[in-house]
Amino acid sequence: MATNIKLNIRKSSLRLTDELLTVRLIQNDSHRVTIGNLDGLKRSSETATSDEIQEFNGLLQDVPTTDLTVMSYHPAIANNPGAVRNYAGKRHVVALAGTIEKRNVTYIASGGKLYEQNKLSLASEDGDLDCQPGDELMIFKGDRECVSWAVLNCHEYTHIDILRALQDYEIELLVVVTYNAASRLYWEYARADVHRLFCFVVIVNVGELGGSGVFAPFRRIGKEKNATLSTAGQMFGARGSAEVDASMKLEIGCLRQLRETYRTKGFPEKAARDGRDVILPSQRFLHTFDVSPGVPQARPRQIDNFSWNSKNPVIAFCQLDSLSIETYRKTGYRLDKADNEVAFFKQRLTAKLHELMLRCRLREEPANLDFLVMPEVFVPRSFLPELIAFSKANKTIVIAGLDYPDDENANECVIIHPDRPEGVTTFYRKITRSQYDAQGSADPEDRQPLKRGSELLRFTNDSGASFGVLICYDYSHLELIERLNLGDGAEPLDILFVVSHNPFGDLYRSCCIADSHRFYQHIVMCNVAEFGGSGIFAPRREPGSRQVLCEVGKGIEATGLHQLDLDMQRAMRATADNKLQHGKFMRKPGIFQERFTFEKVLKED
Protein backbone atom coordinates (compact mmCIF):
# COMPACT_ATOMS: atom_id res chain seq x y z
CA MET A 1 0.00 0.00 0.00
CA ALA A 2 1.29 3.46 -0.90
CA THR A 3 2.09 6.08 1.76
CA ASN A 4 0.18 9.35 1.49
CA ILE A 5 2.39 12.45 1.36
CA LYS A 6 1.15 16.00 1.96
CA LEU A 7 2.16 18.18 -0.97
CA ASN A 8 2.50 21.60 0.67
CA ILE A 9 2.07 24.37 -1.91
CA ARG A 10 3.63 27.58 -0.59
CA LYS A 11 3.95 30.97 -2.20
CA SER A 12 7.45 31.49 -3.58
CA SER A 13 9.41 34.56 -2.51
CA LEU A 14 12.45 33.77 -4.68
CA ARG A 15 12.41 36.82 -6.91
CA LEU A 16 13.84 37.29 -10.37
CA THR A 17 16.13 40.18 -11.27
CA ASP A 18 15.80 41.16 -14.93
CA GLU A 19 14.25 37.73 -15.59
CA LEU A 20 17.34 36.04 -14.13
CA LEU A 21 17.96 34.06 -10.96
CA THR A 22 21.50 33.95 -9.62
CA VAL A 23 22.36 30.66 -7.93
CA ARG A 24 25.44 30.43 -5.75
CA LEU A 25 26.59 26.82 -5.44
CA ILE A 26 28.92 25.95 -2.58
CA GLN A 27 30.59 22.54 -2.65
CA ASN A 28 32.41 22.57 0.67
CA ASP A 29 34.18 19.87 2.67
CA SER A 30 32.02 18.33 5.38
CA HIS A 31 34.94 17.09 7.52
CA ARG A 32 32.66 14.16 8.36
CA VAL A 33 32.09 12.11 5.23
CA THR A 34 32.61 8.36 5.29
CA ILE A 35 30.17 6.83 2.85
CA GLY A 36 29.00 3.35 3.78
CA ASN A 37 30.52 3.52 7.26
CA LEU A 38 28.03 3.84 10.11
CA ASP A 39 30.55 5.38 12.50
CA GLY A 40 31.36 8.03 9.92
CA LEU A 41 27.69 8.84 9.43
CA LYS A 42 27.12 9.17 13.16
CA ARG A 43 29.81 11.84 13.24
CA SER A 44 27.52 14.09 11.15
CA SER A 45 25.51 14.85 14.29
CA GLU A 46 28.51 15.92 16.35
CA THR A 47 28.70 19.49 17.60
CA ALA A 48 30.59 21.80 15.27
CA THR A 49 33.85 23.36 16.36
CA SER A 50 34.26 27.12 16.63
CA ASP A 51 36.41 27.09 13.50
CA GLU A 52 33.68 25.27 11.55
CA ILE A 53 31.05 27.79 12.70
CA GLN A 54 33.30 30.68 11.70
CA GLU A 55 33.87 29.07 8.29
CA PHE A 56 30.12 28.67 7.75
CA ASN A 57 29.40 32.30 8.64
CA GLY A 58 32.10 33.38 6.23
CA LEU A 59 30.47 31.44 3.41
CA LEU A 60 27.10 33.18 3.76
CA GLN A 61 27.66 36.67 5.09
CA ASP A 62 28.55 38.33 1.76
CA VAL A 63 25.87 36.68 -0.40
CA PRO A 64 23.53 39.16 -2.14
CA THR A 65 20.00 39.03 -0.75
CA THR A 66 18.50 38.21 -4.17
CA ASP A 67 20.70 35.13 -4.76
CA LEU A 68 19.81 31.56 -3.94
CA THR A 69 22.65 29.87 -2.05
CA VAL A 70 22.71 26.08 -2.30
CA MET A 71 25.04 23.88 -0.26
CA SER A 72 25.22 20.32 0.98
CA TYR A 73 26.04 19.25 4.52
CA HIS A 74 28.17 21.52 6.70
CA PRO A 75 28.99 20.62 10.33
CA ALA A 76 27.91 24.08 11.54
CA ILE A 77 24.34 23.38 10.41
CA ALA A 78 23.64 20.05 12.10
CA ASN A 79 21.56 20.39 15.27
CA ASN A 80 21.85 24.15 14.89
CA PRO A 81 18.91 25.62 12.97
CA GLY A 82 19.88 29.04 14.25
CA ALA A 83 22.94 28.91 11.98
CA VAL A 84 20.66 29.16 8.96
CA ARG A 85 17.84 31.10 10.64
CA ASN A 86 20.25 34.02 11.13
CA TYR A 87 20.27 34.40 7.36
CA ALA A 88 16.63 33.52 6.62
CA GLY A 89 15.35 37.06 6.98
CA LYS A 90 17.71 38.46 4.38
CA ARG A 91 18.76 35.60 2.12
CA HIS A 92 17.59 32.45 0.37
CA VAL A 93 19.56 29.40 1.51
CA VAL A 94 19.15 25.65 0.97
CA ALA A 95 21.38 23.43 3.10
CA LEU A 96 21.47 19.80 4.15
CA ALA A 97 21.36 19.57 7.94
CA GLY A 98 21.87 15.81 8.19
CA THR A 99 20.41 13.56 10.89
CA ILE A 100 18.52 15.35 13.66
CA GLU A 101 16.37 13.48 16.18
CA LYS A 102 15.94 10.51 13.86
CA ARG A 103 15.08 12.71 10.88
CA ASN A 104 17.20 13.51 7.83
CA VAL A 105 16.57 17.25 7.47
CA THR A 106 17.02 19.86 4.77
CA TYR A 107 16.81 23.51 5.81
CA ILE A 108 15.17 25.92 3.36
CA ALA A 109 15.49 29.59 4.32
CA SER A 110 13.41 31.86 2.11
CA GLY A 111 11.12 34.87 2.45
CA GLY A 112 12.09 35.49 6.05
CA LYS A 113 11.15 31.97 7.16
CA LEU A 114 13.07 28.81 7.91
CA TYR A 115 11.48 25.56 6.79
CA GLU A 116 12.53 22.06 7.78
CA GLN A 117 11.84 19.40 5.16
CA ASN A 118 12.25 15.82 6.38
CA LYS A 119 13.52 13.28 3.89
CA LEU A 120 10.75 11.10 2.41
CA SER A 121 12.67 8.37 0.62
CA LEU A 122 15.28 6.84 2.91
CA ALA A 123 18.52 5.17 1.85
CA SER A 124 19.87 2.17 3.73
CA GLU A 125 22.24 4.43 5.70
CA ASP A 126 19.23 6.35 6.99
CA GLY A 127 17.77 3.07 8.18
CA ASP A 128 21.02 2.18 9.92
CA LEU A 129 20.65 5.40 11.91
CA ASP A 130 17.01 4.56 12.68
CA CYS A 131 15.78 7.61 10.76
CA GLN A 132 12.04 7.99 10.25
CA PRO A 133 10.65 9.21 6.91
CA GLY A 134 8.91 12.55 6.55
CA ASP A 135 5.35 12.98 5.33
CA GLU A 136 5.48 16.37 3.58
CA LEU A 137 7.01 17.75 0.39
CA MET A 138 7.09 21.49 -0.30
CA ILE A 139 6.61 23.17 -3.66
CA PHE A 140 7.17 26.92 -3.80
CA LYS A 141 4.72 28.18 -6.40
CA GLY A 142 5.86 31.23 -8.32
CA ASP A 143 4.21 34.05 -10.20
CA ARG A 144 5.42 36.66 -12.70
CA GLU A 145 8.01 37.93 -10.24
CA CYS A 146 9.01 34.74 -8.39
CA VAL A 147 10.35 31.33 -9.41
CA SER A 148 8.45 28.04 -9.05
CA TRP A 149 10.84 25.63 -7.39
CA ALA A 150 11.29 22.62 -5.12
CA VAL A 151 14.04 20.91 -3.12
CA LEU A 152 14.86 17.20 -2.92
CA ASN A 153 17.17 15.43 -0.48
CA CYS A 154 19.52 12.88 -2.08
CA HIS A 155 17.68 9.51 -2.28
CA GLU A 156 14.39 11.31 -2.99
CA TYR A 157 15.85 12.06 -6.43
CA THR A 158 15.73 8.34 -7.26
CA HIS A 159 11.97 8.14 -6.60
CA ILE A 160 9.77 8.29 -9.68
CA ASP A 161 6.59 9.04 -7.68
CA ILE A 162 8.18 12.25 -6.39
CA LEU A 163 9.39 13.27 -9.85
CA ARG A 164 5.91 12.80 -11.28
CA ALA A 165 4.37 14.92 -8.53
CA LEU A 166 6.81 17.76 -9.26
CA GLN A 167 6.18 17.45 -12.99
CA ASP A 168 2.47 18.11 -12.56
CA TYR A 169 3.29 21.51 -10.99
CA GLU A 170 5.64 22.50 -13.83
CA ILE A 171 8.41 23.76 -11.57
CA GLU A 172 11.09 25.94 -13.14
CA LEU A 173 13.94 24.98 -10.82
CA LEU A 174 14.72 21.73 -9.03
CA VAL A 175 17.40 21.80 -6.31
CA VAL A 176 18.89 18.49 -5.17
CA VAL A 177 21.09 18.44 -2.04
CA THR A 178 23.14 15.26 -1.73
CA TYR A 179 25.67 13.51 0.49
CA ASN A 180 26.33 10.85 -2.08
CA ALA A 181 29.08 9.03 -3.94
CA ALA A 182 26.81 8.31 -6.95
CA SER A 183 27.38 11.68 -8.61
CA ARG A 184 27.71 10.23 -12.12
CA LEU A 185 24.25 8.71 -11.88
CA TYR A 186 22.73 11.96 -10.58
CA TRP A 187 24.17 13.86 -13.52
CA GLU A 188 22.40 11.43 -15.86
CA TYR A 189 19.20 12.01 -13.87
CA ALA A 190 19.59 15.76 -14.35
CA ARG A 191 20.26 15.49 -18.09
CA ALA A 192 17.07 13.48 -18.48
CA ASP A 193 15.01 15.76 -16.23
CA VAL A 194 15.86 19.13 -17.82
CA HIS A 195 14.38 17.61 -20.97
CA ARG A 196 11.31 15.87 -19.56
CA LEU A 197 10.46 18.44 -16.85
CA PHE A 198 11.74 21.31 -19.05
CA CYS A 199 13.32 23.11 -16.10
CA PHE A 200 16.70 23.92 -14.56
CA VAL A 201 18.32 21.40 -12.20
CA VAL A 202 20.96 22.23 -9.57
CA ILE A 203 22.77 19.41 -7.75
CA VAL A 204 25.11 20.07 -4.83
CA ASN A 205 27.30 17.58 -2.97
CA VAL A 206 30.01 17.75 -0.31
CA GLY A 207 33.55 18.61 -1.33
CA GLU A 208 35.06 15.24 -0.47
CA LEU A 209 32.78 13.49 -2.98
CA GLY A 210 32.22 16.18 -5.63
CA GLY A 211 29.70 15.92 -8.43
CA SER A 212 27.86 19.23 -8.01
CA GLY A 213 26.39 20.55 -11.24
CA VAL A 214 23.98 22.98 -12.92
CA PHE A 215 21.87 21.88 -15.89
CA ALA A 216 19.73 23.93 -18.29
CA PRO A 217 17.16 22.97 -20.95
CA PHE A 218 19.43 24.52 -23.63
CA ARG A 219 22.15 23.08 -25.85
CA ARG A 220 23.69 26.41 -26.77
CA ILE A 221 24.10 29.82 -25.17
CA GLY A 222 25.25 32.48 -27.59
CA LYS A 223 25.55 32.65 -31.37
CA GLU A 224 29.23 31.79 -31.69
CA LYS A 225 30.06 28.49 -33.37
CA ASN A 226 31.60 26.96 -30.26
CA ALA A 227 29.16 28.37 -27.70
CA THR A 228 27.68 24.94 -27.07
CA LEU A 229 26.88 23.15 -23.85
CA SER A 230 27.31 19.43 -23.30
CA THR A 231 24.50 16.88 -23.44
CA ALA A 232 21.26 18.33 -22.11
CA GLY A 233 22.77 21.69 -21.31
CA GLN A 234 25.26 21.10 -18.51
CA MET A 235 26.28 24.64 -17.57
CA PHE A 236 28.64 23.69 -14.75
CA GLY A 237 30.11 20.56 -13.19
CA ALA A 238 32.56 19.86 -10.38
CA ARG A 239 33.74 16.32 -10.95
CA GLY A 240 35.90 14.83 -8.24
CA SER A 241 36.96 15.96 -4.79
CA ALA A 242 37.22 19.75 -4.59
CA GLU A 243 35.91 22.76 -2.72
CA VAL A 244 34.03 25.00 -5.13
CA ASP A 245 32.19 28.31 -4.82
CA ALA A 246 30.47 29.26 -8.09
CA SER A 247 27.69 31.62 -9.18
CA MET A 248 25.51 31.16 -12.26
CA LYS A 249 22.65 33.14 -13.75
CA LEU A 250 19.67 30.97 -14.66
CA GLU A 251 17.57 32.43 -17.46
CA ILE A 252 14.16 31.72 -15.97
CA GLY A 253 12.54 34.44 -18.07
CA CYS A 254 13.86 32.82 -21.23
CA LEU A 255 12.52 29.44 -20.09
CA ARG A 256 9.09 30.97 -19.52
CA GLN A 257 9.05 32.58 -22.94
CA LEU A 258 10.08 29.30 -24.56
CA ARG A 259 7.35 27.40 -22.73
CA GLU A 260 4.76 29.89 -23.91
CA THR A 261 6.09 29.98 -27.48
CA TYR A 262 6.13 26.20 -27.81
CA ARG A 263 2.62 25.97 -26.40
CA THR A 264 1.20 28.49 -28.85
CA LYS A 265 3.34 28.06 -31.98
CA GLY A 266 4.80 24.57 -31.66
CA PHE A 267 7.38 23.07 -34.00
CA PRO A 268 8.19 26.08 -36.22
CA GLU A 269 9.54 27.88 -33.18
CA LYS A 270 12.23 25.28 -32.45
CA ALA A 271 14.81 27.84 -33.59
CA ALA A 272 16.78 29.30 -30.72
CA ARG A 273 16.00 32.54 -29.02
CA ASP A 274 19.07 34.80 -28.94
CA GLY A 275 21.24 31.95 -30.17
CA ARG A 276 19.98 29.22 -27.81
CA ASP A 277 19.57 25.77 -29.24
CA VAL A 278 16.74 24.44 -27.11
CA ILE A 279 16.12 20.86 -26.08
CA LEU A 280 12.64 20.24 -27.46
CA PRO A 281 10.33 19.63 -24.49
CA SER A 282 7.66 17.00 -24.00
CA GLN A 283 4.15 17.39 -25.41
CA ARG A 284 3.08 18.86 -22.06
CA PHE A 285 4.73 22.13 -23.21
CA LEU A 286 4.44 21.67 -26.98
CA HIS A 287 1.71 22.22 -29.58
CA THR A 288 2.35 19.31 -31.92
CA PHE A 289 0.75 20.61 -35.11
CA ASP A 290 -2.60 18.83 -34.78
CA VAL A 291 -2.85 18.32 -31.01
CA SER A 292 -2.85 21.02 -28.32
CA PRO A 293 -0.27 20.96 -25.51
CA GLY A 294 -0.93 18.62 -22.62
CA VAL A 295 -0.21 15.24 -21.12
CA PRO A 296 -0.53 12.53 -23.81
CA GLN A 297 -3.42 10.21 -23.11
CA ALA A 298 -2.83 6.47 -23.24
CA ARG A 299 -3.97 3.49 -21.22
CA PRO A 300 -1.84 0.45 -20.38
CA ARG A 301 -2.92 -2.86 -21.89
CA GLN A 302 -1.41 -6.14 -20.81
CA ILE A 303 -1.01 -8.91 -23.37
CA ASP A 304 -0.94 -12.14 -21.34
CA ASN A 305 0.47 -15.56 -22.20
CA PHE A 306 3.09 -13.97 -24.43
CA SER A 307 5.89 -16.49 -23.97
CA TRP A 308 9.45 -15.19 -23.91
CA ASN A 309 12.75 -16.09 -22.27
CA SER A 310 12.66 -14.00 -19.10
CA LYS A 311 15.68 -15.69 -17.51
CA ASN A 312 18.71 -15.00 -19.72
CA PRO A 313 17.55 -13.69 -23.12
CA VAL A 314 20.00 -13.03 -25.94
CA ILE A 315 19.21 -9.68 -27.56
CA ALA A 316 20.43 -8.16 -30.83
CA PHE A 317 19.87 -4.54 -31.82
CA CYS A 318 20.64 -3.43 -35.38
CA GLN A 319 22.03 0.09 -35.69
CA LEU A 320 22.06 0.42 -39.47
CA ASP A 321 21.99 3.13 -42.13
CA SER A 322 18.48 4.20 -43.04
CA LEU A 323 17.22 5.69 -46.26
CA SER A 324 17.61 9.48 -46.51
CA ILE A 325 15.16 11.96 -45.02
CA GLU A 326 14.54 13.19 -48.57
CA THR A 327 13.37 9.68 -49.50
CA TYR A 328 10.99 9.62 -46.53
CA ARG A 329 9.48 12.97 -47.51
CA LYS A 330 9.28 12.10 -51.20
CA THR A 331 7.47 8.82 -50.55
CA GLY A 332 5.26 10.10 -47.75
CA TYR A 333 7.11 7.70 -45.39
CA ARG A 334 6.06 4.75 -47.57
CA LEU A 335 9.45 3.41 -48.52
CA ASP A 336 8.30 0.89 -51.15
CA LYS A 337 7.56 3.85 -53.42
CA ALA A 338 11.32 4.47 -53.65
CA ASP A 339 11.67 1.64 -56.22
CA ASN A 340 15.39 0.92 -56.83
CA GLU A 341 16.48 2.48 -53.55
CA VAL A 342 14.26 0.26 -51.44
CA ALA A 343 15.12 -2.88 -53.42
CA PHE A 344 18.80 -2.47 -52.60
CA PHE A 345 17.93 -1.52 -49.01
CA LYS A 346 15.99 -4.75 -48.52
CA GLN A 347 18.88 -6.76 -49.96
CA ARG A 348 21.14 -5.20 -47.35
CA LEU A 349 18.66 -6.06 -44.58
CA THR A 350 18.56 -9.69 -45.73
CA ALA A 351 22.36 -9.83 -45.70
CA LYS A 352 22.45 -8.36 -42.18
CA LEU A 353 20.02 -11.02 -40.94
CA HIS A 354 22.17 -13.81 -42.37
CA GLU A 355 25.28 -12.26 -40.86
CA LEU A 356 23.57 -12.01 -37.47
CA MET A 357 22.59 -15.67 -37.39
CA LEU A 358 26.13 -16.67 -38.34
CA ARG A 359 27.40 -14.64 -35.37
CA CYS A 360 24.95 -16.40 -33.07
CA ARG A 361 26.10 -19.84 -34.26
CA LEU A 362 29.78 -18.94 -33.88
CA ARG A 363 29.45 -17.70 -30.29
CA GLU A 364 31.68 -19.44 -27.76
CA GLU A 365 28.49 -20.67 -26.13
CA PRO A 366 25.88 -20.80 -28.93
CA ALA A 367 22.48 -19.60 -27.80
CA ASN A 368 19.13 -18.93 -29.34
CA LEU A 369 18.51 -15.34 -30.40
CA ASP A 370 15.54 -14.33 -28.26
CA PHE A 371 15.00 -10.73 -29.46
CA LEU A 372 15.89 -8.79 -32.61
CA VAL A 373 15.32 -5.01 -32.51
CA MET A 374 15.35 -2.53 -35.42
CA PRO A 375 14.94 1.29 -35.42
CA GLU A 376 11.89 3.51 -35.83
CA VAL A 377 10.24 3.96 -39.29
CA PHE A 378 12.98 1.74 -40.67
CA VAL A 379 11.61 -1.44 -42.26
CA PRO A 380 9.46 -1.29 -45.42
CA ARG A 381 6.19 -3.15 -44.90
CA SER A 382 6.95 -5.29 -47.94
CA PHE A 383 9.82 -6.76 -45.89
CA LEU A 384 7.46 -8.01 -43.16
CA PRO A 385 7.16 -11.54 -44.63
CA GLU A 386 10.93 -11.95 -44.42
CA LEU A 387 10.93 -10.78 -40.77
CA ILE A 388 8.12 -13.20 -39.96
CA ALA A 389 10.04 -16.05 -41.63
CA PHE A 390 13.18 -15.07 -39.70
CA SER A 391 11.21 -15.04 -36.46
CA LYS A 392 9.76 -18.54 -37.03
CA ALA A 393 13.00 -20.07 -38.29
CA ASN A 394 15.05 -18.82 -35.35
CA LYS A 395 12.42 -18.74 -32.57
CA THR A 396 13.07 -15.00 -32.23
CA ILE A 397 10.76 -12.19 -31.13
CA VAL A 398 11.24 -9.34 -33.64
CA ILE A 399 10.59 -5.71 -32.66
CA ALA A 400 10.91 -3.39 -35.66
CA GLY A 401 9.83 0.11 -36.61
CA LEU A 402 7.81 0.15 -39.85
CA ASP A 403 7.16 2.72 -42.54
CA TYR A 404 3.65 4.17 -42.76
CA PRO A 405 0.69 2.00 -43.85
CA ASP A 406 -1.01 2.81 -47.15
CA ASP A 407 -4.34 3.96 -45.74
CA GLU A 408 -3.22 6.49 -43.08
CA ASN A 409 -0.21 8.24 -41.61
CA ALA A 410 0.82 6.26 -38.53
CA ASN A 411 4.17 5.54 -36.91
CA GLU A 412 4.09 1.89 -35.84
CA CYS A 413 6.31 -0.81 -34.44
CA VAL A 414 5.62 -4.49 -35.12
CA ILE A 415 6.13 -7.16 -32.46
CA ILE A 416 6.40 -10.58 -34.12
CA HIS A 417 6.20 -13.74 -32.01
CA PRO A 418 7.50 -16.96 -33.55
CA ASP A 419 4.71 -19.13 -32.10
CA ARG A 420 1.78 -16.95 -33.12
CA PRO A 421 -0.37 -18.16 -36.04
CA GLU A 422 0.64 -17.07 -39.53
CA GLY A 423 -0.25 -13.44 -40.15
CA VAL A 424 -1.03 -12.68 -36.49
CA THR A 425 1.26 -9.90 -35.33
CA THR A 426 0.98 -7.12 -32.76
CA PHE A 427 1.43 -3.45 -33.61
CA TYR A 428 2.30 -0.68 -31.19
CA ARG A 429 1.36 2.77 -32.49
CA LYS A 430 3.34 5.83 -31.43
CA ILE A 431 1.33 7.96 -28.99
CA THR A 432 3.13 11.28 -29.43
CA ARG A 433 4.29 13.29 -32.41
CA SER A 434 7.80 14.71 -32.81
CA GLN A 435 9.00 17.37 -35.23
CA TYR A 436 10.20 14.58 -37.56
CA ASP A 437 6.86 12.77 -37.98
CA ALA A 438 4.80 13.13 -41.19
CA GLN A 439 6.84 15.93 -42.75
CA GLY A 440 5.59 16.97 -46.16
CA SER A 441 8.86 18.69 -47.08
CA ALA A 442 11.85 20.41 -45.50
CA ASP A 443 9.58 23.38 -44.75
CA PRO A 444 8.77 23.14 -41.02
CA GLU A 445 5.25 24.43 -41.76
CA ASP A 446 4.56 21.60 -44.21
CA ARG A 447 3.16 18.80 -42.08
CA GLN A 448 0.65 16.06 -42.70
CA PRO A 449 -1.96 14.66 -40.28
CA LEU A 450 -0.79 11.79 -38.08
CA LYS A 451 -2.95 9.09 -36.51
CA ARG A 452 -1.73 8.51 -32.95
CA GLY A 453 -1.92 5.50 -30.70
CA SER A 454 -3.80 5.26 -27.41
CA GLU A 455 -2.43 2.11 -25.76
CA LEU A 456 0.76 1.23 -23.91
CA LEU A 457 1.52 -2.47 -24.38
CA ARG A 458 2.95 -4.82 -21.72
CA PHE A 459 3.86 -8.31 -22.93
CA THR A 460 3.65 -10.75 -20.01
CA ASN A 461 4.55 -14.44 -19.89
CA ASP A 462 3.22 -17.18 -17.62
CA SER A 463 5.88 -16.37 -15.00
CA GLY A 464 4.62 -12.80 -14.70
CA ALA A 465 7.71 -11.27 -16.34
CA SER A 466 6.97 -8.36 -18.70
CA PHE A 467 8.57 -6.26 -21.39
CA GLY A 468 7.28 -3.11 -23.09
CA VAL A 469 7.93 -1.04 -26.20
CA LEU A 470 8.06 2.71 -26.85
CA ILE A 471 8.76 4.65 -30.04
CA CYS A 472 11.24 7.52 -29.92
CA TYR A 473 9.48 10.75 -28.75
CA ASP A 474 7.19 8.67 -26.54
CA TYR A 475 10.34 8.15 -24.47
CA SER A 476 10.57 11.89 -23.81
CA HIS A 477 7.42 11.64 -21.67
CA LEU A 478 7.90 10.66 -18.06
CA GLU A 479 4.13 10.21 -17.77
CA LEU A 480 4.11 7.45 -20.40
CA ILE A 481 7.16 5.69 -19.00
CA GLU A 482 5.67 5.71 -15.50
CA ARG A 483 2.27 4.52 -16.74
CA LEU A 484 3.78 1.69 -18.80
CA ASN A 485 5.96 0.55 -15.90
CA LEU A 486 3.68 1.11 -12.92
CA GLY A 487 0.14 1.60 -14.24
CA ASP A 488 -2.67 -0.31 -12.53
CA GLY A 489 -0.36 -1.20 -9.65
CA ALA A 490 2.05 -3.19 -11.82
CA GLU A 491 5.67 -3.96 -11.01
CA PRO A 492 8.27 -2.30 -13.27
CA LEU A 493 9.00 -4.02 -16.57
CA ASP A 494 11.93 -6.41 -16.75
CA ILE A 495 12.96 -4.88 -20.12
CA LEU A 496 11.91 -1.70 -21.89
CA PHE A 497 12.63 -1.56 -25.65
CA VAL A 498 12.87 1.88 -27.30
CA VAL A 499 13.06 2.10 -31.10
CA SER A 500 14.11 5.50 -32.38
CA HIS A 501 15.20 7.56 -35.37
CA ASN A 502 16.55 10.39 -33.28
CA PRO A 503 19.34 12.94 -33.89
CA PHE A 504 19.81 13.39 -30.12
CA GLY A 505 21.15 9.96 -29.25
CA ASP A 506 23.33 11.41 -26.49
CA LEU A 507 20.26 12.76 -24.67
CA TYR A 508 18.42 9.44 -24.88
CA ARG A 509 21.53 7.66 -23.64
CA SER A 510 21.29 9.71 -20.42
CA CYS A 511 17.56 8.92 -20.21
CA CYS A 512 18.31 5.19 -20.54
CA ILE A 513 20.90 5.29 -17.76
CA ALA A 514 18.58 7.30 -15.50
CA ASP A 515 15.55 5.07 -16.11
CA SER A 516 17.43 1.78 -15.87
CA HIS A 517 18.11 2.73 -12.25
CA ARG A 518 14.86 4.55 -11.33
CA PHE A 519 12.85 1.52 -12.51
CA TYR A 520 15.62 -1.03 -11.85
CA GLN A 521 15.28 -2.61 -15.28
CA HIS A 522 17.14 -3.31 -18.50
CA ILE A 523 16.60 -0.83 -21.33
CA VAL A 524 17.38 -1.56 -24.98
CA MET A 525 17.74 1.48 -27.24
CA CYS A 526 17.90 1.01 -31.03
CA ASN A 527 18.63 4.03 -33.23
CA VAL A 528 19.79 4.46 -36.83
CA ALA A 529 23.52 4.58 -37.59
CA GLU A 530 23.52 8.26 -38.65
CA PHE A 531 22.62 9.34 -35.12
CA GLY A 532 23.98 6.46 -33.01
CA GLY A 533 23.43 5.89 -29.32
CA SER A 534 22.01 2.37 -29.54
CA GLY A 535 22.80 0.20 -26.55
CA ILE A 536 21.72 -1.95 -23.64
CA PHE A 537 21.58 -0.38 -20.18
CA ALA A 538 20.99 -1.92 -16.76
CA PRO A 539 21.26 -1.14 -13.02
CA ARG A 540 24.67 -2.77 -12.88
CA ARG A 541 28.16 -1.67 -11.92
CA GLU A 542 30.04 -2.36 -15.12
CA PRO A 543 33.73 -1.64 -15.83
CA GLY A 544 34.22 1.62 -17.70
CA SER A 545 30.82 3.22 -18.30
CA ARG A 546 28.68 2.12 -15.38
CA GLN A 547 25.24 0.75 -16.35
CA VAL A 548 26.27 0.36 -20.01
CA LEU A 549 26.34 -3.28 -21.09
CA CYS A 550 26.78 -2.60 -24.78
CA GLU A 551 26.60 0.51 -26.99
CA VAL A 552 27.39 1.76 -30.49
CA GLY A 553 28.56 5.27 -31.36
CA LYS A 554 27.36 7.80 -33.89
CA GLY A 555 27.86 7.08 -37.60
CA ILE A 556 28.66 3.38 -37.11
CA GLU A 557 26.77 0.47 -38.60
CA ALA A 558 26.80 -2.40 -36.13
CA THR A 559 24.66 -5.09 -34.57
CA GLY A 560 25.00 -5.31 -30.80
CA LEU A 561 24.59 -8.76 -29.28
CA HIS A 562 24.29 -9.36 -25.55
CA GLN A 563 22.84 -11.86 -23.09
CA LEU A 564 20.94 -10.44 -20.11
CA ASP A 565 20.69 -11.85 -16.60
CA LEU A 566 17.08 -11.07 -15.69
CA ASP A 567 16.91 -13.74 -12.97
CA MET A 568 19.63 -11.88 -11.09
CA GLN A 569 17.88 -8.55 -11.63
CA ARG A 570 14.69 -9.90 -10.05
CA ALA A 571 16.70 -11.42 -7.20
CA MET A 572 18.33 -8.03 -6.53
CA ARG A 573 14.94 -6.31 -6.52
CA ALA A 574 13.99 -8.60 -3.63
CA THR A 575 17.30 -8.14 -1.75
CA ALA A 576 17.65 -5.74 1.18
CA ASP A 577 19.26 -2.54 -0.03
CA ASN A 578 22.02 -2.55 2.59
CA LYS A 579 23.27 -5.82 1.10
CA LEU A 580 23.84 -4.17 -2.28
CA GLN A 581 26.74 -1.92 -1.22
CA HIS A 582 29.06 -4.13 -3.28
CA GLY A 583 28.61 -6.51 -6.17
CA LYS A 584 27.50 -6.14 -9.77
CA PHE A 585 24.02 -4.74 -9.17
CA MET A 586 23.44 -1.22 -7.88
CA ARG A 587 21.48 -0.23 -4.83
CA LYS A 588 17.78 0.22 -5.44
CA PRO A 589 15.75 3.38 -6.17
CA GLY A 590 12.98 4.80 -4.02
CA ILE A 591 10.01 2.92 -5.50
CA PHE A 592 11.47 -0.35 -4.21
CA GLN A 593 11.48 1.03 -0.67
CA GLU A 594 8.03 2.60 -0.62
CA ARG A 595 5.40 3.92 -3.06
CA PHE A 596 3.84 7.37 -2.56
CA THR A 597 0.56 9.10 -3.30
CA PHE A 598 0.17 12.85 -2.83
CA GLU A 599 -2.46 15.07 -1.27
CA LYS A 600 -2.37 18.75 -2.16
CA VAL A 601 -2.33 21.15 0.81
CA LEU A 602 -2.26 24.93 0.34
CA LYS A 603 -0.11 26.70 2.95
CA GLU A 604 -0.56 30.36 3.85
CA ASP A 605 2.70 31.57 5.41
Automatic annotation (TrEMBL):
Under the heading InterPro entries, the entry gives: C-N_Hydrolase_sf (IPR036526)
Q: Which SUPFAM superfamilies match?
A: Carbon-nitrogen hydrolase (SSF56317)
Q: What is this protein called?
A: CN hydrolase domain-containing protein
Q: Which organism is it from?
A: Massilia cellulosiltytica
Q: What is the lineage of its organism?
A: Bacteria, Pseudomonadati, Pseudomonadota, Betaproteobacteria, Burkholderiales
